[in-house]
Specification:
It contains 15 helices and 17 strands. By secondary structure, the protein is of the alpha/beta class. The strands form three sheets. An eight-stranded mixed sheet has the order 7-8-10-9-13-17-14-15, sandwiched between helices. A six-stranded mixed sheet has the order 1-6-5-2-4-3, with helices on both faces. A three-stranded mixed sheet has the order 11-12-16. A hairpin with a 5-residue loop joins β3 and β4. The longest helix is centred in the first third of the chain and has 19 residues. The protein is elongated. It starts with a strand and ends in an 11-residue tail after the last helix. The C terminus is likely disordered.
Amino acid sequence: MLAKLTTHSRLPQGKNLQKMKHLLVVLPPGVLPEDCPQRPLLEAALHRRGKPAGSLASVPLPATTAEGALCVWCMLDPAKPVFEQQGLLRKALQSLFDERPERVDVLLSGDAAFNAVAASLATYVALANGAPLPTARRKDAPRALKELVIWNGQPEAAAVAQAEANWLARSLIVQPPNQLTPTAYRRKLADLASKEGWQHEEFGIDKLRKLGAGAFLAVAQGSAVADAAIVHLSYRPKRASARVALVGKGICFDTGGHNLKSAKYMAGMHEDMAGSAVAVALLLAATRLNLPLRIDCWLALANNEISPLAYRQGDVVTALDGTTIEIVHTDAEGRMVLADTLALAARKSPDVLVDFATLTGSMITALGNRYGGVFASAAALAGQAVAAGEASGERVCVFPMDADYEEELESSVADIKQCTLAGEADHILAARFLRRFVGEIPWLHVDLSAASCKGGLGAIGSEQTGFGVGWGVKFLTQWMRQSPLLPQDAGIN
């Protein structure tokens, strides 16, 4: 799906430059370098607009060359946050993508250190946005970028892997609910596992009943088709010692159940499986990068339907680990399917467990759609999560999860309430609820409030952002560097 990537160690000259039709020139901050491609045209365009060269650091500048090519210049400052750098490159590339080109040439005009950073950022942004998402629209359907050429720089392998993984996540998220049913999703995952060499295991309804996964089954019982399942994918590279568990919420459509959502809030609920898409995409990125980690990926796939068989307020169910749960609101289904999935993942005793979910509306109320919310079982882990957000351009904010919050979840008929009807601090209460099923394992819960953002976010131009994939790649690589479980020569880039 991604464009072919070609790299050159020098800037183009003569006929090579003249043949180009769509160019992005990425400049370092400060004065224009002597070797700036199409410098006279850029200086004329700046003069005509009455703008200094420094304005390119905030607003890209397009112009048409004498040969009729579209050239866009921007000035990238590595000292600025990665989020801002990605956003600038996305705006610059969008001017080129609007013409639906088959090829884009990116010319880097800085020193070796600058070009290394710029090459990776530009490659990620260009490849991720150059591959159109699946659509049923026939008129003016987007056209894929076929070739990306980077001049005077070499991107890191992570840039390509991350672009492919982000596209995978978004390509799953945009699919309509009548097409990406749990059955269809399970089939796609089986095919992907076969292609990538992952171990593949499914816990369907019958297996989950035998395991006593009453929390997951409570949500699944409302569906006319018994196709809900927990899918387990495993990546087992050689020489891997540290163990990671990834868990993703995969509600393919969420009606709210008996506590039915209104039309406004039910719209877009086919995207309630974004957590699972992020988890499997992160597994793909780890595979592409040959990360020396044993990774178990657990995906909770189901629909939350309204039917005579659907679970109700007041029900008491027993989770896989024996915890009894009082149902308070049927639209709090995400924490129910995650409870049993987390308990199942915890049985493997991973060294770190990370779950992803579009879990609570209160997290969107708290942060909007530009940050993700994170809860951590330890302060050091929280610090790593924030650092990964800064390094990836997918920003996260850490929230408190003190034990006294759980007083709100005390039940007179079960071990714990699923939630409260008050709605206050529901994102924190959800995290306290989930922590019960993780035990003492180091754990991060990522509430994906930035999974969808109108107008795009950071590097990504589509409304579905794939938020969490880039963060996850950075988190895993940074966590490995600090892990005593891995040898110093583990091959971490």
